[in-house]
Amino acid sequence: MAQIWAISLKELKAYFASPIAYVVTAMFLLISGYFFAMILAYGKDAGMMRYLFGNMSVILLLITPLFSMRLFAEEQKNKTLELLMTSPISDAGIVLGKFLATALLLLIMLLTTAHFPILLLVLGKPDLMPILTGYLGMFLMGCAFLAIGMLTSTWTQNQIVAAVSSFSISLLLWFLGASGSLAGAELGALMTYVSLNTHFESFSKGVLNSSDLIYYFSVIGILLFVTVRSLETRRWR
After folding, report:
1. Which is it for the CA torsion 68, 177, 136, 228, positive or negative?
2. How much is the mean pLDDT over the chain?
3. Half-sphere exposure of residue 53, counting CA atoms within 13 Å on the CB side?
């Protein structure tokens, strides 16, 4: 466990030693602040913040590849991945350490918007449950995006290719629910269930379903498992 934390701290220091963490967080806060201002100006769904959460989830779809693209692609480009893989830590530990770092970075980024609900509490009496579940849903969805990005980062040493691949897969999983109505009943139901966006809707409404939690944890777990296997194949190259 200590080795996993060591990798996580190393990755976090690398993020904050470069402009990427500050620039991406600033972009997220600026765009989210704009939509929050629209809520206050026009009173659109101010109590439940569903309008804000819906737009913030789209922002996460766009910017999470910027966090995950460097995780393994940069290691491959700098020829340091082989050194890391020969260190006294398993491939699973490496993946978990890097994922934990990006998840903490995502959490920090979401916490920068904590003043939004606080301001609503000052101005009125919003329903707290949809706000709390909305943030939980965004965090879980963001972690799923990051797990996708980790996997694509093992495929190439080009960070741009990793980011584009991550965004494309995330976008596909995002729109599966919308296109499910065009397929047959059984296939459409499957596509709707697999969609990342479908399970987020319950969180934004203040509904905490165990099925949605299991879905996100399962998706993240499967993606991390495949990432470990993808990393292991490098030993045979």
Report:
1. negative
2. 84
3. 27
In the block, tokens 């495949």 appear at 226
CA distances from 166 to 26, 46, 162 (A): 21, 32, 6
CA proximity to 232, closest of 85, 99, 77, 80: 85
What residues contact 38, with CB distance under 8 A and at least 6 apart? 44, 51
DSSP label at residue 48? T
Confidence at residue 193, expressed as pLDDT on a 0 to 100 scale = 79
Q: What is the pLDDT of residue 236?
A: 57
Residue 155 DSSP code: T
pLDDT of residue 46: 53
Structure tokens at 84: 């890391």
Ranges of the chain with pLDDT below 70: 43-48, 177-185, 188, 234-237
Q: Token pair of 96, please? A: 């978990």
Look-up of token digits 């995502």: 106
Distance CA 165, CA 185 (A): 29
Domain encompassing residue 59: 2-236
> For the chain, how many structural domains are there in total?
1
Q: What are the structure tokens assigned to 173, written together?
A: 């999983």
Cβ contact 130:200 at 8 Å: no
